[in-house]
């Protein structure tokens, strides 16, 4: 039973009886996914869940795929044109509520189409109000910019907004007792005070008895077979629900030992986004590289393939995969992600070319922040450390003589560096080069 959330579930179910956009917002850990699961189950009473509600969740590693989340919910391809997508999606929903969990991690097209469909069918968006950073590594693109803009517009036009609040002390105590009956009264009161009504914190603290989540998970995996340990790490590296075809024979054991859960679509998933990140660290570097390479052989999405090839040490293959896929896709946001992977996998001498291509496609996709960041990478990749120093000083307006004095080199050497900077950046004069220096900073 979901503790302390009956009123919220009832409000959402009642609002979903007629067309409209219902937004359910919550801070991380307040049980948003559990509430939406309860909503789906309540709507589906007396009918199979998979036919009563069109449901899917945002997948941050695949946020660059336009329409993916809504396609998973409706089980049909989603056209790129908004009007066509709304018409087709409304027919496919056939009056059933459309429920998108983790909408803050969904692609912008799915959010925009779902919001427009709300004129014809009930649409429920689950939104984490303080989403986790979409950037896993420094320099990695933020493909969620368009999605957040679409989501903000959707929330602004919502017919119903429901906010999850922290549990009351009474409900928090009940949840802790359900998690660990052996805790004494003093420990329960201490945990209630520490967690401040956050269900995830309550369950984690009560279930692990002050042991870290990573250590608890590692201990559980030592009791599993090598295949299950590999599946656990692979699921963490994917960062999203996956089927046995990707995870291997150990997927069933993960579910049997309750380390992971089986979804209605046959996929295996962790119960918390935290566990994905933890699981991805539970292997030696050599084993992690091998799992990355194995996933690259099994995946279909070129962005995922190239990313796993890159992390698995297959740099040439990652570059070739990314470049080939980028040249074959019409979507600028996807191309930008692929160009960036190509740049990370290629030599510094070639990386600038891919960074410039990424910047152009970011601009086409309407993401000037990511475009500027890619431009900075392009400049840094093209120039040597000394040339970067000279470029930086050009940006401050220093003359060649002043630069030579600061770097303690001859004026002739500075002139050679300036000429090399202009050539590599394709700048016609010092003014254009200085503009590049401002962008780089």
Automatic annotation (TrEMBL):
Q: Which domain of life is it from?
A: Bacteria
Q: Which GO terms describe its molecular function?
A: DNA binding
Instruction: Give the source species.
Output: Nakamurella leprariae
- Asked whether the UniProt record includes Transcription among its keywords, one would answer yes
Q: Which GO terms describe its biological process?
A: regulation of DNA-templated transcription
Q: Where is the HTH luxR-type domain?
A: 376-441
The UniProt entry, under InterPro entries, shows: Sig_transdc_resp-reg_C-effctor (IPR016032), Tscrpt_reg_LuxR_C (IPR000792), WH-like_DNA-bd_sf (IPR036388)
Record keywords, A-Z: DNA-binding, Transcription, Transcription regulation
Q: What is this protein called?
A: Helix-turn-helix transcriptional regulator
Gene3D superfamilies, alphabetized? Winged helix-like DNA-binding domain superfamily/Winged helix DNA-binding domain (1.10.10.10)
Note whether Transcription regulation occurs among the keywords: yes
Q: Tell me any Pfam family this protein matches.
A: GerE
């Amino acid at each position: 039973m979901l503790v302390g959330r009956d009123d919220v579930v009832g409000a959402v179910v009642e609002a979903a009886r007629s067309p409209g956009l219902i937004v359910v917002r919550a801070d991380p850990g307040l049980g948003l996914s559990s509430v939406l699961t309860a909503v789906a189950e309540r709507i589906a009473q007396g009918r199979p869940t998979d036919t009563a509600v069109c449901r899917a969740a945002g997948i941050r590693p695949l946020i660059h795929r336009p329409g993916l989340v809504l396609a998973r919910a409706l089980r049909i391809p989603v056209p790129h044109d908004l009007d066509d997508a709304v018409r087709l999606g409304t027919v496919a929903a056939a009056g059933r509520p459309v429920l998108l969990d983790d909408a803050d991690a969904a692609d912008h097209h799915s959010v925009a189409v779902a919001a427009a469909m709300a004129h014809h069918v009930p649409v429920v968006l689950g939104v984490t109000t303080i989403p986790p950073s979409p950037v896993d590594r420094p320099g990695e693109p933020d493909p969620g910019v368009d999605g957040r803009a679409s989501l903000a517009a959707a929330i602004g036009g919502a017919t119903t907004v429901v906010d999850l609040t922290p549990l009351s002390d009474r409900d928090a105590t009940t949840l802790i007792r359900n998690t660990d009956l052996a805790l004494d009264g003093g420990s329960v009161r201490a945990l209630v005070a520490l967690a401040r009504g956050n269900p995830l914190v309550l369950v984690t603290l009560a279930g692990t008895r002050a042991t870290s989540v990573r250590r608890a998970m590692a201990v559980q995996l030592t009791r599993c077979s090598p295949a299950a340990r590999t599946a656990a790490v692979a699921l963490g590296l994917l960062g999203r629900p996956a089927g046995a075809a990707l995870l291997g024979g150990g997927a069933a054991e993960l579910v049997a030992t309750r380390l992971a859960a089986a979804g209605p679509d046959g996929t295996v998933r962790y119960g918390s986004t935290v566990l994905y990140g933890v699981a991805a660290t539970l292997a030696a570097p050599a084993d992690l590289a091998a799992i990355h390479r194995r996933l690259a052989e099994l995946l279909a999405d070129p962005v995922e393939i190239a990313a796993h090839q890159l992390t698995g040490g297959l740099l040439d293959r990652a570059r070739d995969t990314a470049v080939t896929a980028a040249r074959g896709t019409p979507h600028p946001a996807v191309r930008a992600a692929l160009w960036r992977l190509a740049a990370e996998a290629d030599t510094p001498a070639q990386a600038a070319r891919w960074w410039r291509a990424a910047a152009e496609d970011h601009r086409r996709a309407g993401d000037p922040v990511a475009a500027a960041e890619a431009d900075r990478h392009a400049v840094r990749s093209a120039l040597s450390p000394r040339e970067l120093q000279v470029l930086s000083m050009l940006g401050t307006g220093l003359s060649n003589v002043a630069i030579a004095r600061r770097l303690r080199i001859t004026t002739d050497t500075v002139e050679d560096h300036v000429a090399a900077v202009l050539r590599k950046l394709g700048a016609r004069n010092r003014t254009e080069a200085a503009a590049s220096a401002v962008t780089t900073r």
